[in-house]
Structure formats: structure tokens, C-alpha cells
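Long-time lurker. I teach an intro course on protein structure, and each term I like to show students one example going from raw sequence to a predicted 3D structure in C-alpha cell notation. This year I'd like something fresh instead of my usual example. Would anyone be willing to generate the C-alpha cells for the chain below so I can use it in lecture? Attribution to the forum is fine with me.
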Amino acid sequence: MAARRLPRGTRLEPVVFPLSVEKRNRDRWKEIADLNGISSSAMFDAMVENIELDLRGRPTWLPERPPKDGELPIDSA
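-- Reply from a regular --
Happy to contribute to a lecture. Here you go:
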């Protein structure tokens, strides 16, 4: 089944977005998009537009960074 593409002319400012990623992750991304009947780029746009962020703007699923040397792990809120 071919991935459903967005209709021509629907992107306001299209750009090519080359990334260096692990082949297995790229292949998995394409597989997930195909299973949902959308293109890889349409799935990326949907993810960015719907990603859940915490109060500091970090994705809620992203592991916390360890504190830098000399930095105290205290929230400023």
C-alpha cells in the first residue's frame, strides 16, 4: 500500500529536512507511517504539531538530563 501523500500545494513553506539517523529507526518511522496510511513527512508534521511538552518545553517522554558539573538539580519553579 502506497503512503497517502498530502495534496499538492498544501504545504505553506516546504523544506527538505535531511537528517542523519540510524537506518533501522528511519525504516521503523516509514513502517509506522505506512501502517497509518500517511507519508513519512506528513507523520513528522503531525508529531511536531501534537507533541506533549512539559512546562520547560521538553517532550514528556524524554529522559531528564543529568545535572552539569557544579549545577544543582533544583527546579526554579
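Some talking points for your students: The chain has a mean pLDDT of 85. Residues 22-53 form one domain.
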